[in-house]
Amino acid sequence: MARLDARRIPGVLADPSAWRVILLYGEDQGLVQERTAALIDAVVGAPDPFRFAELPREAAVRPGALVAEVTAGSLTGGRRVVRVRDATDAMATPLKAALDANGEALVIVEAGELKRRGKLLELVEGAPGACAIPCAPERGEALVATLRGLFAAEGVEVDPTALEWLAARMGEDRLQVRREVERLSLYAGRGGRLDEAALLASAGGEGTGPELDDALSAAMLGDIPGTDRATRAAFADGATPVGVLRAVLRHLVRLREAAVAMEHGASVSDAMSGLRPAVFGRAQGPFGQALRRWSPAMLAAAAQAALEAEERAKSGGTGRPVPDAALARQLLLVLAARAATRRG
């Protein structure tokens, strides 16, 4: 069985009865965990220790351990679920043995990013009764659609323009997205409505939080001490290194788009309002000042540096990459140093 088409994923999550092994893998571990929870709920429903087992990876790779769990019966009746986290290609051999054993349990295997020709992914994609579900961060219209659905489930309506703005400033990890939706839903109240003013009153401006917004603004205006102070505050408030790097890249791309519009005759105000989403609230002042300081060519070079920084942050070690906070901080300070040489 090949990787599932995206349109089939909701159906499988709601009813995995046709599957014996489901591999959830990819960069967005928040989405992996969310989909695992949906599968467990679909099979087991209310928590039942006799129908659910979680094997540490070290135990799951031991000969016979996974087969024993897959073929074990439930004392309370019903199908069992066996969960294995942090899987690597070493899981391929025990997982094949479990598939050959024809057990009744559903095996949910969680992994980080996997090599396309790796043993684990090739096994699952080629085995009857098994499927692989990639869990990549959602962006653009896909993220907007997800946000709309999550807010609807909370009984909160969000204006379309405000929803686009929120998607542009939000991190891409599903757990972070869900926590932000829950926070904003509490702010609005069930049956409430969120517009641009409400979002600005409860959140920051262009980044993923007010501290990171301040770091971005300070960096683009050449305020080196302010950049360092706000970046440290953003990390203390829970920002992740990869989230910071991506927020920097999004900010640079938006600045360059507006800067190009100005090269073609648009005013600063028109260039900002022409972005989608437009620049709102307290972000307008620093954004406009940065446009007067940075040329499109400089912004393009800075965006390339941000892309390279993310690649370096994700390149170390095996399994799921662990980005480096120092690298993200360094990027912002380098941008601030460059901006300091420019006059607004």
UniProtKB/TrEMBL annotation:
One of its GO terms (molecular function) is DNA binding. Keywords: DNA replication, DNA-directed DNA polymerase, Nucleotidyltransferase, Transferase. InterPro entries: DNA_pol3_clamp-load_cplx_C, DNA_polIII_delta, P-loop_NTPase. Signal peptide: none annotated. It catalyses: DNA(n) + a 2'-deoxyribonucleoside 5'-triphosphate = DNA(n+1) + diphosphate. One of its GO terms (biological process) is DNA-templated DNA replication. One of its GO terms (cellular component) is DNA polymerase III complex. Its EC number is 2.7.7.7. Belongs to the DNA polymerase HolA subunit family. This is DNA-directed DNA polymerase. It comes from Humitalea rosea.
